[in-house]
Amino acid sequence: MTPTLILFVKEPRPGRVKTRLGRDIGPTAAAWWFRHQTRRLIRRLSRDPRWNTVLAVAPDREGMESRCWPAHVPRQPQGPGNLGDRMARALRSAPPGPVAIIGADIPGITPTHIARAFRSLGSHDAVFGPAPDGGYWLIGLARRRAVPPALFAGVRWSSEHALADSRATLPDHSIALVDTLRDVDTVADLDRV
Prior knowledge:
CATH superfamily: Spore Coat Polysaccharide Biosynthesis Protein SpsA, Chain A
Largest sheet: 7 strands, mixed
Distance between the termini: 34 Å
Number of helices: 7
Order of helices and strands: EHHEHEHEHEEHEH
Shape: globular
CATH class: Alpha Beta
CATH topology: Spore Coat Polysaccharide Biosynthesis Protein SpsA, Chain A
CATH architecture: Alpha-Beta Complex
Strand content: 15-25%
């Protein structure tokens, strides 16, 4: 079965994406950065034949109709709820086989990173790509068994506890960790990448 890579993306509108970065450099500049970062990432990852790439878009209607994203990459709406609700739904509804979700604000992601994550699902139930701030840039599930109903319940998103909390919602799952990569939330993060 061909693995599925799901990229979570938002319509790049000033004031609606990268709001913390927008406080540092202005909302228009932050939206511009996100739009171009996302396009580069999609181009880099969607051409790889080792997995099928899908965009999970928000807001649902605008994202499905948007001309920002390449037409050749399939899209699905993220739907309602918090980040955990939306990711759990995407993990459950993906085609059979391994599935991984990544965010679009991590400039360092390469096909090698994604391949390493999918390879780790050959011997583990789940995989995370940690971020230095206690969050993560990737979650993947082998899906040899049902996705836990309480996946992501009680996760403290946008905190240093996000990875630990998410791991705790996968009891009795073998978990691999792959490369630590930095996302961009502030101008200091931009300077580091």
